[in-house]
């Protein structure tokens, strides 16, 4: 079975096929209908369809030969002022032949462009608006100069909803004859959030094992501990059984190959679901933050995580005393 290039294979080909982002799709479809596109900024988290939306709009606007009217640059690789002066300017100033009087230039990762390059881009956008429309794609729109933002129509992409992501993953799994279990789909959302690109890649990695895609296989290939195991470890520690909790921690690290920083995040997430007094949640959240800082500063993972479990066990003893 061929598991190559799933993300590209199942990338939507038109705006009507886009997953979620209905309000944004409706606005872009109105641009296609009027055959008039302003300069745009597509901003939002990774894997939410920003680049796909730009390519789908171009395809809907120009038809099958859309690549003749389109240039796509990744500004994280080509981020200096010379790129704007040479590649961008050369493409923008040449008038296109066809029914649509302008071309489209997509600048992916535009928030990584240098300040000088953005200043040059600002002037180019002003000068060649008639012949070229710019679509700037960024994870953080605040890193783009305000004068450029004011010249663009803003589009804010959001992470996909659980049900939309699950529906698309099931479509991919059925097309590839992969058995995706319900707990596997839930685990993919837990690991990837609403990042569809990451979830498809994770599904591909899990499917490559040749087994049904379950929560266990997803957590294994993602290098994340199963939340059930993390919850059990926390509960064991708070009950005062420090040695057993530490044993569970070591088993998780060996079983999933998970990094200490990831376990800290999962413990922090699970802490607020515990049925303990709020004052203890405050104290333990502070302890988790301290351990996380020490790990970032280069502390030994096993030592620091053991210290955190000791704090949880100590809190458990004190709560019993209360």
- The name of the CATH superfamily of the largest domain reads P-loop containing nucleotide triphosphate hydrolases
> Level of helix content?
55-70%
Oligomer: single chain
How many alpha or pi helices?
A: 15
Largest sheet: 5 strands, parallel
The overall average pLDDT, rounded, is: 86
Termini separation comes to 59 Å
Which class do the helix and strand fractions yield?
alpha/beta
CATH class identity of the largest domain: Alpha Beta
Dominant shape: elongated
**CATH architecture assignment name of the largest domain:** 3-Layer(aba) Sandwich
Helix/strand order, N-terminal first: HHEHEHEHEHEHHHHHHHHH
* CATH topology name of the largest domain: Rossmann fold
**Low-confidence runs:** none
List the helices and strands and how they pair.
Elements lengths: L5 H4 L12 H13 L5 E4 L6 H13 L7 E5 L6 H12 L10 E6 L6 H13 L4 E7 L7 H4 L3 E4 L5 H14 L6 H11 L3 H12 L7 H8 L4 H12 L3 H15 L3 H12 L6 H19 L4 H21 L1
Parallel strand pairs: 1-4, 1-5, 2-3, 3-4
Tell me about this structure.
This protein folds into three domains: 21-156, P-loop containing nucleotide triphosphate hydrolases (Rossmann fold), CATH 3.40.50; 162-222, Helicase, Ruva Protein, domain 3 (Orthogonal Bundle); 227-321, Zinc Finger, Delta Prime, domain 3 (Up-down Bundle), CATH 1.20.272.10. Strand 3 (103-108), helix 5 (115-127) and strand 4 (132-138) form a beta-alpha-beta unit. It has 322 residues and is an alpha/beta fold. Helix 12 packs antiparallel against helix 15 (301-321), helix 13 packs antiparallel against helix 14 (278-296) and helix 14 (278-296) packs antiparallel against helix 15. It has a five-stranded parallel beta sheet, with helices on both faces. The model has no long low-confidence stretch (mean pLDDT 86). It starts with 5 loop residues before the first helix and ends with a helix. Helix content is 57%, strand content 8%.
């Amino acid at each position: 079975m061929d598991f190559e290039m799933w993300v590209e294979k199942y990338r939507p080909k038109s705006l009507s096929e886009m997953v979620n982002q209905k309000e944004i799709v409706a606005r872009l479809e109105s641009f296609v209908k009027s055959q008039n596109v302003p300069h745009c900024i597509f901003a939002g988290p990774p894997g939410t369809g920003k680049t796909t939306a730009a390519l789908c709009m171009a395809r809907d606007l120009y038809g099958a030969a859309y690549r003749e009217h389109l240039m796509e640059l990744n500004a994280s690789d080509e981020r200096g002022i010379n790129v704007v002066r040479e590649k961008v300017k050369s493409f923008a100033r040449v008038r296109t032949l066809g029914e649509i009087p302008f071309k489209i230039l997509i600048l992916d990762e535009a928030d990584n462009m240098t300040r000088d390059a953005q200043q040059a881009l600002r002037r180019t956008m002003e000068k060649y608006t008639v012949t070229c429309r710019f679509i700037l794609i960024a994870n953080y729109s605040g890193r783009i100069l305000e004068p450029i933002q004011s010249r663009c129509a803003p589009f804010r992409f959001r992470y996909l909803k659980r049900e939309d992501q699950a529906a698309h993953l099931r479509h991919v799994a059925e097309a590839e004859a992969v058995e995706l279990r319900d707990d596997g789909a839930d685990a993919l959302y837990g690991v990837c959030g609403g990042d569809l690109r990451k979830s498809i890649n994770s599904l591909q990695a899990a499917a490559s094992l040749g087994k049904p895609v379950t929560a266990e296989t997803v957590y294994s290939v993602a290098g994340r501990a199963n939340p059930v195991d993390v919850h059990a470890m926390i509960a064991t520690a708070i009950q005062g059984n420090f040695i057993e909790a530490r044993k569970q921690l070591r088993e998780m690290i060996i079983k999933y190959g998970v990094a200490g920083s990831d376990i800290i995040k999962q413990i922090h997430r699970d802490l607020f679901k515990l049925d303990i007094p709020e004052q203890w949640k405050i104290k333990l959240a502070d302890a988790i933050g301290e351990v996380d800082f020490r790990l970032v500063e280069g502390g030994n993972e096993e030592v620091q995580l053991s210290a955190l479990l000791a704090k949880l066990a100590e809190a458990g003893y004190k709560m019993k005393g209360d």
